[in-house]
Amino acid sequence: MLVLGIETSCDECSVALVEDGTRLKGMLIATQDEVHAPYSGVVPELASRRHVETILPIYREVLNGVKCVPGDIDLVAVTVQPGLAGSLAVGVAFAKALAVGLGRPVVGVDHIPAHLYAIQLERKVPYPFLGLVISGGHTLIARCLGPTELEVLGTTIDDACGEAFDKVAKHLELGYPGGVAIDRLARRGDPKAFSFPVPSLHKGDHRYDVSYSGLKTAVVNQLEQFRNPGYEATRENIAAGFESSAVDMALNRLRRAQRDTGMDRIVVAGGVASNSYLRSRLSDWKGAEVFVPSKRLCTDNGAMVAGLGYHVYRERGAGNLDLDILPKVAEFRGNYP
Ligand code: KG4
Ligand code: ZN
Q1: List of residues 6+ apart from 239 with CB closer than 8 A
Q2: Ligand 2 mean position to 136 CA, how many Å?
Q3: Nearest Cα to 242, choosing from 284, 182, 326?
Q4: CB 213 within 8 A of CB 161
Q5: Residue to substitute in 33, 79, 133, 135 for testing ligand 1 pocket (most ligand atoms within 8 angstroms of CB)
Q6: Which of 7, 49, 173, 298 is placed for a possible disulfide with 274 were both Cys, Cβ 3.0 to 4.6 Å?
């Protein structure tokens, strides 16, 4: 079954063709960095407008690139939640129009399990496994029981990890996009230059939760207070100090979840999973086999949507043309979605 996947939940416009949920035939990802760079952050109205401009050309280019015609598509899958309302709406409207025009079914896909599915396009990771989604919009640890079945153990109680990267980079003018800029600077810095505060979320309901707003405030507003004697507050040292604190916080919670659940397979996905320091820490992880998709499948992409869409269709059948968007999901704790 040839599935066309469409992803427009934030500022990446991506279209991909995936065969039977696993074989990636072709994909394009149009980034919008030059649109948002002057504002050092994604401007929702500009993002959706750019999606309107790019979606049809990249759809055509993906099909041409793999010598397919529209009639070859068996199913259209599109991200419907969570994300920026205007951005999601462009992808969903395009998907519905295409489905009607081609006389093919359409399914709505959730962006969170889609990130955790991305690895399956590169290698088969058997379920169940422990998953960490670490992106610009979300930070979440879940037991993944199947492609569409997550049991959420912990989330962020305020900002997402990638959001903290982006905000720190914006306020300290470290570059745009923020995550990549900090990653690059941190390679030449010393993480020991700063000792930023670690939130104390140890007990009960918060055992696997993270919190990034305190770290962000410390780096942006109280930097000198956390500088260690003998180190300079260079851009490189700030980036390295922040990066290690941000990544270690998520990985410490992941380690705790691994110990408590006894799960011996871990999948880490989402934009921040392309961070160099995070990838190096995961490369010698003890006690579990760790799987991280290649960088282009960590950040937002249509392939993960097509891949998961295949399973959504098999499990629940086609959606209908009432398919709506859900920018904010109500609750992350417990069974999700
Ligand atoms: O998964 P994604 O493309 O979009 C969301 O679902 O949010 O993740 C984007 C996030 C942004 O916050 C971006 O700064 C971050 O991923 N990111 C990185 C790196 N590359 C992207 N953060 C740290 N290091 C990177 N190399
Ligand atoms: Zn994402």
Answers
A1: 174, 181, 182, 183, 185, 186, 189
A2: 7
A3: 182
A4: no
A5: 135
A6: 298
Phi/psi of residue 63, nearest 5 degrees: -60, -45
Alpha-carbon distance of 335 to 313, in angstroms, equals 20
pLDDT bin (cut points 50, 70, 90) of residue 67 is very high
pLDDT at 55: 98
Peptide bond into 197 cis (omega under 30): no
Give the model's pLDDT for residue 288: 98
At residue 73, what are phi and psi to the nearest 5 degrees?
A: -75, 130
- Give CA–CA dist 139/210, Å, rounded: 8
The model's confidence at residue 320, banded by pLDDT at 50, 70 and 90, is: confident
Q: Is the pLDDT of residue 331 over 80?
A: no
Q: What is the DSSP string of 34-92?
A: HHHGGGTS--HHHHHHHHHHHHHHHHHHHHHHTT--GGG--EEEEEEESS-HHHHHHHH
Q: Ligand 1: distance of its center to the CA of 7 in Å? A: 15
Averaged confidence pLDDT in the chain: 96
The CA 2 to ligand 2 mean position distance, Å, reads 23
| Predicted confidence (pLDDT) per residue in 221-272, tens digit | 999 999 999 999 999 999 999 999 999 999 999 999 999 999 999 999 999 9
Separation of alpha carbons 43 and 60, rounded Å: 26
Mutation probe of ligand 1 site: the residue of 163, 165, 249 with most atoms within 8 A of C-beta: 165
